[in-house]
Design a protein that fits this description.
415 residues, alpha/beta, TIM Barrel, eight-stranded parallel β-barrel
Length: 415
């Protein structure tokens, strides 16, 4: 299986918006930009909602069939490791192998020595084409990079080989992610990480490094845009050189786990992939769920009442909901409107607070982030919630499509 030049990961907590999501890809195709959809859902999300892994596959396949989609599509086992990968084997054909927990653990002395020796030809003055600065590289520096990352790559190899033993060679897409850590990887580190990946014969097609700055769920990027642009461009150059030096797949590309809605960096990425004629994979979080809440609010009546109920419960259960996402949200509790205030809002006011239009005077990023992690409460409503999604589909679906096409595709791909 080959991942095309442009691909885009879409989360859908409740597996109800597949067609609305895919319509954004259809619309982009009409403008001449072909983007491959990748439905992603993590084990944590399945456990929180109580959903089964095959539901995501069913949603994706039905959407493609109903819209006569003639391009490829994939279902991503998002952020898997050896403890949970087996549940995804049957229904997924894209596996994001998450090695963040293994970074910093030390490989064996023999493995580290072998890694250092195999990369010793790069010692001395080392320069990556396209990157202005050069490096004075010693064996000790290579060894230290190995100490930090080699164990993680070897763990990725174990997981990859386990998947391959079940699905067969070349029957799935492999991504390696190391973004959910506190420190970003330097271009030099990424180069030697890819050396280790090649040595393990992992046919990785996308790699998701950690960039500097904050990538909080569902809100804009916080950080130095110039620094991000420099990091992103350097990583593009690193991948270019690593493919040549280490015989990695020719379609290997950067994956950016954006957490959705990184409006300020999307044009930066778009300009740089055009400049260097590179592909990209962008993985978004479950902001489709936020569009469902927006649509329910706009529907008014019982639907608005349910949206208010979910928000009110989220306020009460703040610590429970936010704890698992503490590293990817920044909520000022003082900025959250009280349940009593929200009770008086009409649907438009609720939607304006939740919808990610940063220039709108009623937009509230604190509320948006809390609702984002509050999908557990919606799941607890059972058929009351999912029934509302079906009943008000015609109002919700345009919110979903517009979010992907206008807020994401237009900024990245200039469609």
């Amino acid at each position: 299986m080959q991942l095309s030049k442009y691909s885009f990961g879409i989360g859908d907590r409740f597996a109800r918006q597949g067609e609305a999501q895919l319509k954004a890809f259809v619309d982009a195709g009409k403008k001449g930009v072909k983007i491959t959809p990748v439905w992603n859902k993590s084990n944590r999300e399945h456990l929180t909602i109580g959903s089964a892994h095959p539901e995501t596959r069913k949603e994706a396949d039905e959407a493609a069939r109903n819209l006569n989609w003639d391009g490829p599509w994939f279902v991503d086992a998002d952020h898997i490791n050896m403890s949970n990968v087996d549940g995804f084997i049957g229904s997924s054909d894209f596996f994001t192998i998450d090695v963040a927990d293994y970074i910093g653990k030390k490989a064996t002395d023999a493995d580290l020595e072998s890694f250092t020796r195999s990369n010793s030809s790069f010692t001395g003055t080392f320069k990556i084409p396209g990157i202005e600065e050069s490096y004075s590289l010693s064996r000790e520096m290579i060894y230290r990079i190995g100490e930090k990352f080699l164990f993680a790559v070897k763990e990725a190899a174990k997981i990859y080989r386990h998947i391959e033993s079940k699905k067969g060679k070349n029957n799935f897409i492999t991504e390696i992610s190391m973004d959910e850590v506190s420190e970003s990887q330097s271009p030099l580190e990424l180069f030697f990480i890819l050396s280790a990946v090649s040595a393990e014969n992992i046919p990785v097609q996308t790699i998701a490094p950690k960039f500097s700055g904050r990538f909080n769920k569902g809100v804009d990027y916080e950080g130095d845009l110039d620094n991000f642009a420099r990091e992103f461009e350097q990583d593009l150059m690193v991948i270019d050189e690593a493919v040549k030096k280490f015989n990695l797949p020719g379609n290997l590309k950067l994956s950016v786990h954006s957490g959705s809605d990184k409006f300020s960096i999307y044009p930066v990425m778009g300009e740089l992939i055009k400049k260097h004629e590179k592909g990209i994979h962008i993985k978004t979080a479950g902001t489709t769920w936020l569009e469902e809440m927006t649509g329910l609010a706009l529907a008014g009546g019982e639907a608005l009442g349910l949206a208010k109920k979910i928000y009110g419960e989220a306020l009460i259960r703040f610590d429970e909901l936010c704890g698992p996402y503490a590293t990817v949200i920044d909520i000022d509790r003082a900025g959250l409107p009280g349940a009593g205030d929200v009770a008086d809002w009409d649907g438009e006011r609720f939607a304006n607070a939740l919808r990610h239009e940063p220039d709108h005077p009623e937009y509230n990023p604190d509320m948006r982030q809390l609702v984002h992690v509050g999908y557990k409460i919606a799941a607890e409503q059972g058929k009351m919630f999912t029934g509302m999604l079906e009943k008000y589909r015609d109002i919700i679906a345009p919110q979903v499509t517009d979010n992907i096409y206008r807020r994401h595709f237009q900024r990245i791909f200039d469609v």
